[in-house]
Fold this sequence. Notes:
Blueprint: H1 9-19, E1 45-47, E2 50-52, E3 58-61, H2 71-83, E4 90-93, H3 97-102, H4 116-119, H5 122-144, E5 151-154, E6 157-160, E7 165-168, H6 169-176, E8 223-226, E9 238-241
Parallel strand pairs: 3-4
Antiparallel strand pairs: 1-2, 2-3, 5-6, 6-7, 8-9
Helix pairs in contact: 2-5, 5-6
Amino acid sequence: MKFMPKINRRGFVVGAVAASGGLALGFDLPFGGPDVVRAADGSPEVNAWVVIRPDDTVVIRIARSEMGQGTMTGLAQLVAEELDCDWSKVTTDFPTPGQNIARNRVWGDFFTAGSRGIRTSHDYVRKAGATARAMLTQAAAQQWNVPASECSAAAGVITHRPSGRTISYGRVAEAAAKIEAPKDVPLKDPKDWKIAGKPLRRLDTPAEGHRRAGLRPRPQAARYAQRCHQGYPGIRRQAQEL
């Protein structure tokens, strides 16, 4: 999903000042707030790292380059772990450096080298996931008019434990995006991880099938000859069948 927030007059002025090297107050906060920022498809941004669509698809923003080593999937796993979402419904999106500048570097440093993609950003992306989970849980509690402490989240669903009522993230994302983000959220103990650090499917490769390397097709039952240098004892021409 290509990220392109809807810009109002205030957002345009802030972005223009940032791009010109000036200073302006009123940038969007990294972890949510009363002003809902929306993706290009209109889905609400719970915070700068997490967008949740009405169909419960979770879009996780990645601010590091994927160069084949799995950084994109690894970072998404860290966010998803603390968010407690359904991994099968996770997809990713890459904000641009220009968008980062316009939003006061809300995604931090885009630099990717020296094995630092995860090592230098795992803490704040985990906090982003945990913060989003807290906001979603609070939104559900407000809708039910119950204490948030009576609610828990797992696999993209919030449950009110005393009554057994449930609601999915997609149904409360709009309300969650309007809640002021909590200042301090606890992170999970790594021993309790179910997504992060696990051998899950990578998000940058096809889920099924495979691709054959090479440029030439190989018909079934094709034969080819192997040419051997003559003059060496014991070496003969050979033919092999594929």
